[in-house]
Structure formats: C-alpha cells, structure tokens
C-alpha cells in the first residue's frame, strides 16, 4: 500500500484546511486508516481514525468538534476536514493505513504534509 498526502499549507487561526490521503496498491487489505500529527519537539499523536467495517470514527479530544475524518472508498482516498484551526494544530500530519493479508498486519505511512496555523 502506498499513501500520498496533500492539502497542507499555511492558514490563519480560525481558518480551515482539508487534507487528503490517496491510497494505492493492495487497498482491499486496509481495515483502518488514521491521521497522526507531530509537532516540533513532540511525539507523534493520533488525531483521528476511520474503520473500513462500518465506517466508525474516533477523534482525539483536542480536535473533537473541529475535525472530521472521512473516506471515499471509490477513490481510495481519506480526508481530514479541519475547521477552527488553532496555532497548537501546527504540525506535520501523517496518513496511516493498517492492512492485513493472510494474517500478517502491516502499518503503512505517507510522507507527511505540513500544516502551519498562524495566530
């Protein structure tokens, strides 16, 4: 599975951005996709997740009510709509997919996209 993120950039506080993560390869094996972020000097943290079976989602408390994760199964693309952005949301955002074939599970990562929120 290959993952390519896009949509990052510079935005003022209160603004919005939409990140995309296009998946290719053995996408049928993916059972969950996630967005992570890593700010300078901090550990990578989970932002949101969406599960293939049932489409359930979950979010970090820090983004609940502001971010929305979604997935277009036809396009094999995951999105993260980010509204009411704050300077603390500044980070490199990474797309993650977990896929399994014949009982072997693998985590796949995109290259990351920078999101910078100015005050």
How can the largest sheet be summarized?
7 strands, mixed
Q: Please state the average pLDDT score.
A: 95
- The strand count comes to 11
**Distance between the first and last residues' Cα:** 37 Å
Percent helix among the residues? under 10%
The number of helical runs is 0
Which band does the percent of strand residues land in? over 45%
Order of helices and strands: EEEEEEEEEEE
Give the oligomer, counting copies of the same chain as homo and different chains as hetero.
single chain
Query: What form results from the Cα inertia axes?
Result: elongated
Radius of gyration: 14 Å
Q: Helix- and strand-based class? A: mainly beta
Low-pLDDT segments: none
Task: Give a short overview.
With 119 residues, this protein is mostly beta strands.
Characterise this structure.
The chain has about 120 residues and is mainly β. About 0% of the residues lie in helices and about 60% in strands. The strands form two sheets. Strands 2, 4, 5, 6, 9, 10 and 11 form a seven-stranded mixed sheet that branches. Strand 5 (about 45-50) and strand 6 (about 55-60) form a beta hairpin. The model has no long low-confidence stretch (mean pLDDT about 95).
Task: Outline the fold blueprint.
Blueprint: E1 2-6, E2 9-12, E3 17-24, E4 30-38, E5 45-51, E6 57-59, E7 67-72, E8 77-82, E9 91-101, E10 104-109, E11 113-118
Parallel strand pairs: 2-11
Antiparallel strand pairs: 1-3, 3-8, 4-5, 4-9, 5-6, 7-8, 9-10, 9-11
Defining traits:
11 strands, four-stranded antiparallel beta sheet, seven-stranded mixed beta sheet
